[in-house]
Design a protein that fits this description.
With 369 residues, this protein is α/β, with parallel strands linked by helices. It has helices at residues 26-35, 42-52, 69-76, 136-139, 148-163, 188-199, 221-230, 245-251, 260-274, 292-306, 330-342, and strands at 81-89, 94-101, 106-114, 117-121, 125-127, 142-145, 175-178, 213-217, 235-239, 278-284, 310-316, 346-349. The strands form 2 sheets. A 10-stranded mixed β-sheet has the order 1-2-3-4-7-8-9-10-11-12, with helices on one face. The chain has a two-stranded antiparallel ribbon with strand order 5-6. Belongs to the radical SAM superfamily. RlmN family.
Length: 369
């Protein structure tokens, strides 16, 4: 039985973020620089500082004329995000930061250190309009899309924090997952622009491998088809959460528009085109979608539709305020994994990082208090 929840695909209008270097094409950057009273070649200097040196601090840009330097930098590299607070857990290996944008909009991003990598979970929207009832972000509704600059700025700040030892030993930000606040493919143009800047080599981008970038979606089929045509070797993650349409209509309301068959068809085309395995995200909820028959059905369905080009990422449900749902007991979880694997589909359980600071999957709500 489906519940009636609003679907929002167009962000409400709020104050537009100031135009930033990251919002502009190379030609437009030069135009912006000359409009700020400097010769066009300064655009490349600013890009080297921002993308290469990870700074927007005029004091660090000693190759620029001292007279009027701060005003010039502020004009082309305006401050987009101000840190409200950061919280850490997991012995300092997980760090959630609350940011305030120019118009007071609040967003969150999560930086995570693992033995072999440092990963940033980045937000693409303030809030989310997909209305999934088990997700705190979705229940808060959509405030607005983030600009390209606001998305890239989260990554730049995280890369600088990792480099400067904010999580202990200095390290390099290596992986980006668009699994923070929002539905990335509902902010398609800006997310794609951000991905290109994140993956472009310095000084024109942040130089993170496209194969280390994951773009998540609840299943916006036309946008998955557009992503396929982009030719970017990023990983696609599909939040499926159940193998049957009846339950998915409730858990993922967008399923009213694009059913599982259509979503998996688009995912298979993406996998065949890019050669990248598709990640199927599955939040395991006690007595809701954790039945053995659903594990069997999930395994068979994915084996038939995606073959070897799929991996199931099982996510024990993270608690959210006021939710009546909970994670499945460990024995139920283990049996679910066993049954999916028995069907010939790889399946692993996601590390539940950041629960105690509400930084885990589905918990980001960007609350000041």
């Amino acid at each position: 039985m489906a519940i009636s929840l609003p679907l929002v695909f167009t962000a409400p209008r709020r104050g537009r973020p100031p135009t930033h270097l990251a919002d502009l094409s190379p030609a437009d950057r030069k135009t912006a620089v000359t409009a700020a009273g400097q010769p066009a070649f300064r655009a490349d200097q600013l890009a080297r500082h921002y993308f290469g040196n990870l700074t927007r601090d005029p004091a660090e840009m000693t190759d620029l004329p001292a007279n009027g330097r701060a005003e010039f930098v502020d004009a082309v590299l305006p401050e987009l995000l101000t840190e409200v607070r950061s919280l850490a857990c997991d012995d300092g290996d997980t760090r959630k930061t609350l940011w305030r944008a120019h118009d007071g909009t609040l967003i969150e991003s999560v930086l995570m250190r693992y033995p072999d990598r440092i990963t940033l979970c980045v937000s693409s929207q303030a809030g989310c309009g997909m209305a999934c009832p088990f997700c705190a972000t979705g229940q808060g509704g959509l405030q607005r899309n983030l600009s390209t600059g606001e998305i890239v700025e989260q990554v730049r700040l995280a890369a600088r924090a990792a480099r400067d030892g904010a999580m202990g030993e200095p390290g390099r930000l290596s992986n980006i997952v668009f699994m923070g606040m929002g539905e990335p493919l509902a902010n398609y143009k800006r997310v794609m622009e951000a991905v290109r800047l994140i993956t472009a080599p310095a000084p024109h981008g942040l130089g993170i491998s496209a194969r280390s970038v994951t773009v998540s979606t609840v299943g916006l089929v036309p946008a998955i088809e557009k992503l396929t045509a982009e030719g970017l070797p990023v990983r696609l993650a599909v939040s499926l959460h159940t193998p049957d349409d009846e339950l998915r209509d409730t858990l993922v309301p967008v399923n009213d528009r694009w059913k599982i068959d259509e979503v998996l068809t688009a995912a298979r085309t993406y996998a065949d085109t890019t050669g990248r395995r598709v990640s199927i995200e599955y939040a395991l909820i006690r007595d809701v979608n954790d039945q053995p028959w659903r594990a069997d059905l999930l395994g068979r369905l994915l084996r038939e539709r995606l073959g070897q080009l799929v991996h199931v990422n099982l996510i024990p449900l993270n608690p959210t305020p006021g939710s009546e749902w909970d994670a499945s007991p460990r024995p139920v979880q283990d049996e679910f994994v066993r049954r999916v694997r028995a069907a010939g589909v790889t399946c692993t359980v996601r590390d539940t990082r950041g629960q105690e600071i509400a930084a885990a999957c589905g918990q980001l709500a960007a609350a000041e208090k």
